[in-house]
Protein backbone atom coordinates (compact mmCIF):
# COMPACT_ATOMS: atom_id res chain seq x y z
CA UNK A 1 0.00 0.00 0.00
CA UNK A 2 1.90 3.11 -1.24
CA UNK A 3 -0.18 5.52 0.86
CA UNK A 4 0.44 3.57 4.04
CA UNK A 5 4.15 3.34 3.28
CA UNK A 6 4.34 7.06 2.51
CA UNK A 7 2.64 8.01 5.77
CA UNK A 8 4.95 5.70 7.69
CA UNK A 9 8.04 7.23 6.05
CA UNK A 10 6.76 10.76 6.78
CA UNK A 11 6.06 10.04 10.45
CA UNK A 12 9.42 8.36 10.90
CA UNK A 13 11.20 11.18 9.04
CA UNK A 14 9.79 13.76 11.46
CA UNK A 15 10.72 11.87 14.61
CA UNK A 16 14.12 10.74 13.33
CA UNK A 17 14.86 14.19 11.95
CA UNK A 18 14.17 15.66 15.38
CA UNK A 19 16.47 13.04 16.89
CA UNK A 20 19.30 13.96 14.53
CA UNK A 21 18.76 17.68 15.10
CA UNK A 22 18.96 17.21 18.86
CA UNK A 23 22.10 15.08 18.53
CA UNK A 24 23.75 17.76 16.38
CA UNK A 25 22.66 20.63 18.64
CA UNK A 26 23.77 18.77 21.77
CA UNK A 27 27.25 18.28 20.28
CA UNK A 28 27.42 21.97 19.35
CA UNK A 29 26.43 23.01 22.88
CA UNK A 30 29.09 20.73 24.35
CA UNK A 31 31.79 22.17 22.07
CA UNK A 32 30.73 25.74 22.92
CA UNK A 33 30.86 25.00 26.65
CA UNK A 34 34.41 23.67 26.21
CA UNK A 35 35.35 26.83 24.29
CA UNK A 36 33.88 29.07 26.99
CA UNK A 37 35.69 27.16 29.72
CA UNK A 38 38.97 27.59 27.83
CA UNK A 39 38.32 31.32 27.30
CA UNK A 40 37.38 31.95 30.92
CA UNK A 41 40.76 30.56 31.89
CA UNK A 42 42.40 29.61 35.16
CA UNK A 43 42.22 32.89 37.09
CA UNK A 44 41.61 33.04 40.85
CA UNK A 45 40.86 36.38 42.52
CA UNK A 46 42.00 36.89 46.11
CA UNK A 47 40.73 39.88 48.13
CA UNK A 48 40.68 40.79 51.82
CA UNK A 49 37.57 39.29 53.42
CA UNK A 50 34.54 41.53 53.12
CA UNK A 51 36.12 43.96 50.67
CA UNK A 52 34.33 45.07 47.53
CA UNK A 53 35.48 46.79 44.37
CA UNK A 54 39.12 45.77 44.77
CA UNK A 55 39.80 48.54 47.32
CA UNK A 56 37.96 51.31 45.49
CA UNK A 57 34.69 50.91 47.35
CA UNK A 58 35.05 51.56 51.08
CA UNK A 59 37.87 54.12 50.95
CA UNK A 60 37.64 57.90 51.06
CA UNK A 61 39.25 59.51 48.00
CA UNK A 62 42.84 60.75 48.19
CA UNK A 63 43.07 64.54 48.20
CA UNK A 64 39.41 65.09 49.03
CA UNK A 65 40.05 67.39 51.98
CA UNK A 66 43.19 69.08 50.77
CA UNK A 67 45.27 69.73 47.73
CA UNK A 68 47.16 66.47 48.17
CA UNK A 69 48.03 63.73 50.54
CA UNK A 70 45.84 61.06 51.97
CA UNK A 71 42.66 62.16 53.58
CA UNK A 72 41.81 60.79 56.99
CA UNK A 73 40.23 57.36 56.81
CA UNK A 74 41.93 56.44 53.55
CA UNK A 75 43.32 53.25 55.06
CA UNK A 76 39.82 52.00 55.90
CA UNK A 77 39.58 48.28 55.32
CA UNK A 78 42.02 45.37 55.38
CA UNK A 79 44.61 44.71 52.70
CA UNK A 80 46.84 41.88 51.58
CA UNK A 81 50.54 42.06 52.39
CA UNK A 82 53.63 40.86 50.56
CA UNK A 83 53.84 37.99 53.06
CA UNK A 84 50.42 36.80 51.88
CA UNK A 85 51.63 36.84 48.28
CA UNK A 86 54.72 34.82 49.25
CA UNK A 87 52.47 32.21 50.85
CA UNK A 88 50.37 32.03 47.70
CA UNK A 89 53.51 31.49 45.61
CA UNK A 90 54.39 28.51 47.81
CA UNK A 91 51.18 26.69 46.84
CA UNK A 92 51.51 23.88 44.32
CA UNK A 93 50.16 24.47 40.77
CA UNK A 94 50.40 28.29 41.06
CA UNK A 95 51.83 29.63 37.78
CA UNK A 96 51.39 33.43 38.00
CA UNK A 97 50.46 35.91 40.72
CA UNK A 98 49.69 39.50 39.73
CA UNK A 99 48.99 42.24 42.29
CA UNK A 100 46.93 45.43 42.17
CA UNK A 101 46.43 48.43 44.42
CA UNK A 102 43.33 50.59 43.88
CA UNK A 103 43.00 54.17 45.08
CA UNK A 104 40.12 56.63 44.51
CA UNK A 105 41.71 60.01 43.71
CA UNK A 106 39.91 63.35 43.97
CA UNK A 107 42.86 65.70 44.46
CA UNK A 108 44.32 68.44 42.30
CA UNK A 109 45.83 67.89 38.86
CA UNK A 110 43.06 65.72 37.43
CA UNK A 111 39.41 66.40 36.72
CA UNK A 112 37.12 63.39 36.78
CA UNK A 113 35.21 62.70 33.58
CA UNK A 114 32.10 61.39 35.39
CA UNK A 115 29.63 63.70 37.07
CA UNK A 116 28.04 62.32 40.21
CA UNK A 117 24.39 61.32 39.53
CA UNK A 118 21.86 63.29 41.55
CA UNK A 119 21.40 61.74 45.00
CA UNK A 120 24.18 59.17 44.41
CA UNK A 121 26.88 58.78 47.07
CA UNK A 122 29.18 55.74 46.82
CA UNK A 123 29.53 54.11 50.23
CA UNK A 124 32.82 55.01 51.81
CA UNK A 125 34.10 56.74 48.67
CA UNK A 126 32.01 59.87 48.59
CA UNK A 127 32.51 63.37 49.88
CA UNK A 128 31.71 64.42 53.43
CA UNK A 129 28.57 66.42 53.88
CA UNK A 130 29.02 69.93 52.62
CA UNK A 131 32.13 69.15 50.56
CA UNK A 132 30.30 69.96 47.36
CA UNK A 133 32.14 67.38 45.24
CA UNK A 134 30.00 66.81 42.16
CA UNK A 135 32.10 64.25 40.30
CA UNK A 136 33.11 60.70 41.06
CA UNK A 137 36.77 60.16 41.96
CA UNK A 138 39.28 58.88 39.44
CA UNK A 139 40.20 55.22 39.95
CA UNK A 140 43.98 54.86 40.14
CA UNK A 141 45.27 51.29 39.88
CA UNK A 142 48.82 50.18 40.51
CA UNK A 143 49.63 46.87 38.87
CA UNK A 144 52.64 44.64 38.31
CA UNK A 145 50.99 43.11 35.23
CA UNK A 146 50.97 45.93 32.65
CA UNK A 147 50.10 43.55 29.81
CA UNK A 148 46.68 42.82 31.30
CA UNK A 149 45.17 46.11 32.42
CA UNK A 150 42.26 44.92 34.55
CA UNK A 151 40.51 46.67 37.42
CA UNK A 152 37.01 47.55 38.62
CA UNK A 153 34.95 48.26 35.49
CA UNK A 154 37.88 47.44 33.18
CA UNK A 155 38.42 44.06 31.56
CA UNK A 156 41.61 43.76 29.48
CA UNK A 157 41.73 47.37 28.29
CA UNK A 158 42.75 48.05 24.70
CA UNK A 159 45.62 50.48 24.12
CA UNK A 160 44.52 52.95 21.42
CA UNK A 161 47.50 55.32 21.59
CA UNK A 162 51.03 55.00 22.89
CA UNK A 163 51.99 51.98 24.97
CA UNK A 164 51.72 50.42 28.38
CA UNK A 165 54.62 50.59 30.84
CA UNK A 166 57.16 47.77 30.94
CA UNK A 167 59.08 45.78 33.54
CA UNK A 168 61.92 48.32 33.56
CA UNK A 169 59.54 51.07 34.71
CA UNK A 170 58.39 49.61 38.02
CA UNK A 171 59.20 52.87 39.82
CA UNK A 172 58.92 55.27 36.89
CA UNK A 173 56.52 58.21 36.78
CA UNK A 174 54.56 56.87 33.82
CA UNK A 175 50.84 56.30 33.48
CA UNK A 176 48.30 54.75 31.12
CA UNK A 177 45.04 56.68 31.27
CA UNK A 178 41.49 56.08 30.08
CA UNK A 179 40.24 57.67 26.88
CA UNK A 180 37.42 59.63 28.55
CA UNK A 181 39.69 60.93 31.32
CA UNK A 182 42.33 61.97 28.77
CA UNK A 183 39.75 63.88 26.75
CA UNK A 184 38.35 65.59 29.86
CA UNK A 185 41.83 66.84 30.83
CA UNK A 186 42.97 67.54 27.23
CA UNK A 187 45.87 65.09 27.47
CA UNK A 188 47.67 63.13 24.77
CA UNK A 189 50.55 60.66 24.75
CA UNK A 190 53.70 62.42 25.95
CA UNK A 191 51.86 65.05 28.01
CA UNK A 192 52.41 65.35 31.75
CA UNK A 193 50.03 65.86 34.67
CA UNK A 194 50.25 66.35 38.42
CA UNK A 195 48.84 63.84 40.89
CA UNK A 196 49.41 63.87 44.64
CA UNK A 197 52.41 66.25 44.33
CA UNK A 198 54.12 64.10 41.68
CA UNK A 199 54.48 64.60 37.92
CA UNK A 200 53.58 61.77 35.55
CA UNK A 201 54.03 61.30 31.83
CA UNK A 202 51.21 59.81 29.75
CA UNK A 203 52.74 56.69 28.19
CA UNK A 204 49.50 55.42 26.66
CA UNK A 205 45.76 55.85 26.38
CA UNK A 206 43.35 52.91 26.67
CA UNK A 207 39.67 52.26 26.16
CA UNK A 208 37.56 49.83 28.14
CA UNK A 209 34.25 50.36 26.38
CA UNK A 210 32.63 51.84 29.50
CA UNK A 211 32.53 55.41 30.80
CA UNK A 212 33.43 54.33 34.31
CA UNK A 213 36.35 52.20 33.13
CA UNK A 214 37.72 55.01 30.97
CA UNK A 215 37.84 57.27 34.04
CA UNK A 216 40.80 55.25 35.32
CA UNK A 217 44.60 55.45 35.46
CA UNK A 218 47.13 52.61 35.59
CA UNK A 219 50.51 53.06 37.30
CA UNK A 220 53.38 50.68 38.05
CA UNK A 221 52.56 48.98 41.36
CA UNK A 222 55.69 50.09 43.24
CA UNK A 223 55.16 53.69 42.17
CA UNK A 224 51.50 53.62 43.29
CA UNK A 225 52.42 52.16 46.68
CA UNK A 226 55.04 54.85 47.24
CA UNK A 227 52.87 57.68 45.88
CA UNK A 228 49.96 56.97 48.20
CA UNK A 229 52.06 55.85 51.19
CA UNK A 230 50.78 52.28 51.03
CA UNK A 231 54.01 50.32 51.02
CA UNK A 232 53.58 46.55 51.35
CA UNK A 233 49.82 46.79 50.78
CA UNK A 234 47.84 44.94 48.11
CA UNK A 235 44.11 45.29 47.50
CA UNK A 236 43.75 42.32 45.20
CA UNK A 237 45.79 39.45 43.78
CA UNK A 238 44.95 37.47 40.65
CA UNK A 239 46.40 33.98 40.71
CA UNK A 240 46.73 31.83 37.60
CA UNK A 241 46.77 28.07 38.04
CA UNK A 242 48.95 25.99 35.74
CA UNK A 243 45.82 24.44 34.21
CA UNK A 244 42.05 24.80 34.31
CA UNK A 245 41.79 21.41 36.00
CA UNK A 246 43.77 22.68 39.01
CA UNK A 247 41.80 25.90 39.59
CA UNK A 248 39.58 24.53 42.34
CA UNK A 249 42.52 22.80 44.03
CA UNK A 250 44.57 26.02 44.11
CA UNK A 251 41.59 28.10 45.28
CA UNK A 252 40.93 25.74 48.18
CA UNK A 253 44.63 25.72 49.09
CA UNK A 254 44.62 29.55 49.21
CA UNK A 255 41.61 29.52 51.54
CA UNK A 256 43.30 27.02 53.84
CA UNK A 257 46.66 28.83 53.77
CA UNK A 258 45.44 32.39 54.34
CA UNK A 259 42.21 31.55 56.18
CA UNK A 260 38.64 31.90 54.98
CA UNK A 261 38.03 34.63 57.57
CA UNK A 262 40.99 36.58 56.12
CA UNK A 263 40.45 36.43 52.36
CA UNK A 264 37.63 36.02 49.87
CA UNK A 265 38.60 33.72 47.01
CA UNK A 266 36.64 33.52 43.77
CA UNK A 267 37.50 31.67 40.58
CA UNK A 268 36.83 32.31 36.94
CA UNK A 269 35.23 28.88 36.84
CA UNK A 270 32.45 30.27 39.04
CA UNK A 271 31.97 32.97 36.40
CA UNK A 272 31.93 30.18 33.83
CA UNK A 273 29.09 28.51 35.74
CA UNK A 274 27.12 31.76 35.85
CA UNK A 275 27.45 32.79 32.22
CA UNK A 276 27.08 29.26 30.83
CA UNK A 277 23.98 28.36 32.86
CA UNK A 278 21.58 29.03 30.00
CA UNK A 279 23.76 27.03 27.61
CA UNK A 280 23.93 24.11 30.04
CA UNK A 281 20.15 24.21 30.43
CA UNK A 282 19.79 24.23 26.66
CA UNK A 283 22.09 21.23 26.35
CA UNK A 284 20.03 19.36 28.94
CA UNK A 285 16.86 20.26 27.03
CA UNK A 286 18.37 18.97 23.80
CA UNK A 287 19.23 15.68 25.50
CA UNK A 288 15.67 15.29 26.76
CA UNK A 289 14.36 16.13 23.30
CA UNK A 290 16.73 13.60 21.75
CA UNK A 291 15.56 10.81 24.05
CA UNK A 292 11.91 11.73 23.50
CA UNK A 293 12.41 11.72 19.72
CA UNK A 294 14.10 8.30 19.80
CA UNK A 295 11.26 6.89 21.91
CA UNK A 296 8.71 8.40 19.52
CA UNK A 297 10.53 6.88 16.53
CA UNK A 298 10.57 3.47 18.16
CA UNK A 299 6.88 3.72 19.05
CA UNK A 300 5.93 4.75 15.51
CA UNK A 301 7.84 1.97 13.81
CA UNK A 302 6.75 -0.73 16.28
CA UNK A 303 3.10 0.24 15.98
CA UNK A 304 3.30 0.47 12.19
CA UNK A 305 5.10 -2.83 11.71
CA UNK A 306 2.69 -4.53 14.10
CA UNK A 307 -0.28 -3.17 12.17
CA UNK A 308 1.22 -4.24 8.84
CA UNK A 309 1.95 -7.72 10.15
CA UNK A 310 -1.67 -8.15 11.27
CA UNK A 311 -2.99 -6.95 7.91
CA UNK A 312 -0.67 -9.32 6.04
CA UNK A 313 -1.37 -12.40 8.13
CA UNK A 314 -2.92 -14.15 5.11
CA UNK A 315 0.25 -13.51 3.09
CA UNK A 316 2.31 -14.94 5.93
CA UNK A 317 0.15 -18.07 5.98
CA UNK A 318 0.55 -18.58 2.23
CA UNK A 319 4.34 -18.20 2.45
CA UNK A 320 4.50 -20.79 5.20
CA UNK A 321 2.12 -23.10 3.31
CA UNK A 322 4.42 -23.22 0.28
CA UNK A 323 7.40 -24.08 2.45
CA UNK A 324 8.87 -20.78 3.65
CA UNK A 325 10.46 -20.97 7.06
CA UNK A 326 9.71 -18.61 9.90
CA UNK A 327 13.20 -17.11 9.46
CA UNK A 328 12.62 -16.48 5.75
CA UNK A 329 9.33 -14.66 6.33
CA UNK A 330 10.74 -12.66 9.24
CA UNK A 331 13.77 -11.64 7.14
CA UNK A 332 11.46 -10.32 4.42
CA UNK A 333 9.64 -8.10 6.93
CA UNK A 334 12.97 -6.98 8.39
CA UNK A 335 14.32 -5.95 4.98
CA UNK A 336 11.16 -3.99 4.23
CA UNK A 337 11.40 -2.27 7.61
CA UNK A 338 15.08 -1.40 7.04
CA UNK A 339 14.28 0.17 3.66
CA UNK A 340 11.49 2.29 5.16
CA UNK A 341 13.65 3.29 8.14
CA UNK A 342 16.66 4.24 6.03
CA UNK A 343 14.50 6.30 3.66
CA UNK A 344 12.97 8.15 6.61
CA UNK A 345 16.38 8.62 8.22
CA UNK A 346 17.86 10.15 5.07
CA UNK A 347 14.97 12.59 4.80
CA UNK A 348 15.40 13.47 8.47
CA UNK A 349 19.15 13.94 8.00
CA UNK A 350 18.59 16.33 5.10
CA UNK A 351 16.17 18.33 7.26
CA UNK A 352 18.88 18.68 9.91
CA UNK A 353 20.98 21.04 7.76
CA UNK A 354 18.51 23.96 7.53
CA UNK A 355 16.81 23.44 10.92
CA UNK A 356 19.58 22.66 13.45
CA UNK A 357 20.78 26.27 13.80
CA UNK A 358 17.22 27.54 14.28
CA UNK A 359 16.56 25.00 17.02
CA UNK A 360 19.84 25.90 18.79
CA UNK A 361 19.06 29.63 18.70
CA UNK A 362 15.63 28.96 20.14
CA UNK A 363 17.00 26.96 23.05
CA UNK A 364 19.62 29.50 24.21
CA UNK A 365 19.02 32.85 25.89
CA UNK A 366 21.70 35.48 26.62
CA UNK A 367 22.62 36.48 30.16
CA UNK A 368 22.41 40.19 30.91
CA UNK A 369 24.35 42.23 33.41
CA UNK A 370 22.94 45.50 34.71
CA UNK A 371 24.74 48.82 34.80
CA UNK A 372 24.24 51.79 37.01
CA UNK A 373 23.73 55.40 35.99
CA UNK A 374 26.35 57.08 33.85
CA UNK A 375 28.05 53.82 32.95
CA UNK A 376 28.80 53.04 36.59
CA UNK A 377 29.26 49.32 36.91
CA UNK A 378 26.32 47.63 38.59
CA UNK A 379 26.37 44.35 40.49
CA UNK A 380 26.66 42.39 37.25
CA UNK A 381 29.62 44.33 35.88
CA UNK A 382 32.18 41.61 36.45
CA UNK A 383 29.85 39.04 34.92
CA UNK A 384 29.30 41.30 31.93
CA UNK A 385 33.02 41.84 31.63
CA UNK A 386 33.64 38.13 31.36
CA UNK A 387 30.89 37.80 28.78
CA UNK A 388 32.42 40.67 26.79
CA UNK A 389 35.72 38.84 26.75
CA UNK A 390 33.99 35.79 25.37
CA UNK A 391 32.23 37.90 22.76
CA UNK A 392 35.57 38.77 21.28
CA UNK A 393 36.38 35.08 21.06
CA UNK A 394 33.23 34.00 19.32
CA UNK A 395 30.10 35.76 20.46
CA UNK A 396 27.65 35.69 23.34
CA UNK A 397 26.18 32.42 24.49
CA UNK A 398 23.31 32.68 22.04
CA UNK A 399 25.73 32.71 19.12
CA UNK A 400 26.28 28.97 19.06
CA UNK A 401 27.37 27.96 15.58
CA UNK A 402 25.88 24.59 14.71
CA UNK A 403 27.96 22.95 11.99
CA UNK A 404 26.10 19.96 10.58
CA UNK A 405 28.74 17.51 9.37
CA UNK A 406 28.29 14.58 6.98
CA UNK A 407 28.64 12.41 10.07
CA UNK A 408 24.94 13.01 10.65
CA UNK A 409 24.21 10.51 7.86
CA UNK A 410 26.11 7.85 9.80
CA UNK A 411 23.99 8.64 12.84
CA UNK A 412 20.90 8.38 10.65
CA UNK A 413 21.96 5.01 9.25
CA UNK A 414 22.76 3.66 12.71
CA UNK A 415 19.43 4.78 14.16
CA UNK A 416 17.51 3.39 11.17
CA UNK A 417 19.13 -0.03 11.40
CA UNK A 418 18.74 -0.11 15.17
CA UNK A 419 15.04 0.69 14.98
CA UNK A 420 14.55 -1.86 12.19
CA UNK A 421 16.19 -4.58 14.28
CA UNK A 422 13.97 -3.72 17.24
CA UNK A 423 10.88 -3.60 15.04
CA UNK A 424 11.63 -7.02 13.52
CA UNK A 425 10.65 -8.57 16.86
CA UNK A 426 6.98 -7.84 16.11
CA UNK A 427 6.71 -9.71 12.78
CA UNK A 428 8.83 -12.54 14.18
CA UNK A 429 6.28 -12.96 16.96
CA UNK A 430 3.38 -12.91 14.48
CA UNK A 431 5.09 -15.30 12.07
CA UNK A 432 5.71 -17.81 14.85
CA UNK A 433 2.00 -17.79 15.81
CA UNK A 434 0.57 -18.12 12.30
CA UNK A 435 -0.64 -21.62 11.30
CA UNK A 436 -1.19 -21.96 7.53
CA UNK A 437 -4.14 -24.35 7.95
CA UNK A 438 -6.09 -21.86 10.05
CA UNK A 439 -5.35 -18.94 7.71
CA UNK A 440 -6.35 -20.83 4.55
CA UNK A 441 -9.35 -22.70 6.02
CA UNK A 442 -11.89 -20.28 4.57
CA UNK A 443 -10.11 -19.70 1.26
TrEMBL record:
This is ABC3 transporter permease protein domain-containing protein. Pfam families: FtsX, MacB_PCD. Keywords: Cell membrane, Membrane, Transmembrane, Transmembrane helix. The keyword DNA-binding does not apply. It is found in: Cell membrane. Residues 5-256 form the MacB-like periplasmic core domain. Signal peptide: none annotated. It is a multi-pass membrane protein. The keyword Transmembrane applies. The chain crosses the membrane at residues 288-309, 329-353, 408-431. GO terms for cellular component: plasma membrane. Residues 290-434 form the ABC3 transporter permease C-terminal domain. GO terms for molecular function: transmembrane transporter activity.
Amino acid sequence: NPLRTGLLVAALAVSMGLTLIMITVNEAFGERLDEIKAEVGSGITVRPAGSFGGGFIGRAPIGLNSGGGASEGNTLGDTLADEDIDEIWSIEHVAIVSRTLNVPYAGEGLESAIERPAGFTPRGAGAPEGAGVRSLPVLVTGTDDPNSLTTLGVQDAEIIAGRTFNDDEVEANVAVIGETLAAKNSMEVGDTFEMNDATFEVAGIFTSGTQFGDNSIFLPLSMAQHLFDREDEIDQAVVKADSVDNVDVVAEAIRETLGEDTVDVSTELSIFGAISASLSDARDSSRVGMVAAVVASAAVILFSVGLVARQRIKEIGIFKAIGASNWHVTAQFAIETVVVSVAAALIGALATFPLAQTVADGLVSDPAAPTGPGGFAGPGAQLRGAAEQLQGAGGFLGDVDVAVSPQVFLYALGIAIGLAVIASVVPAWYVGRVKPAEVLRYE
